[in-house]
């Protein structure tokens, strides 16, 4: 049976940094690691929105990226 080991979570926020030559919004990503992987999606969204409030640019989206090592038990 396989088990999950060394689970990690990262919050990635995308902020609108300007516009392209065609007038569409352009975005940059900001990544914040070492987030507790047991946090709920509501908690992640709340944290991402608070971090975005400290940014100069408007928030585009909040993303969660989970990674873990899978090993035999």
From TrEMBL:
List residues of the DUF1659 domain. 3-71
Q: What is this protein called?
A: DUF1659 domain-containing protein
Q: Report the source organism.
A: Megamonas hypermegale
């Amino acid at each position: 049976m396989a088990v999950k080991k060394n689970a990690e979570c990262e919050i990635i926020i995308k902020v609108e940094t300007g516009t392209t030559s065609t007038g569409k919004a352009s975005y940059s990503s900001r990544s914040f690691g070492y987030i507790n992987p047991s946090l709920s999606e509501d908690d992640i969204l709340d944290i991402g929105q608070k971090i975005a409030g400290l940014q100069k640019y408007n928030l585009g989206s909040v993303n969660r990226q989970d990674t873990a090592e899978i090993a035999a038990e």
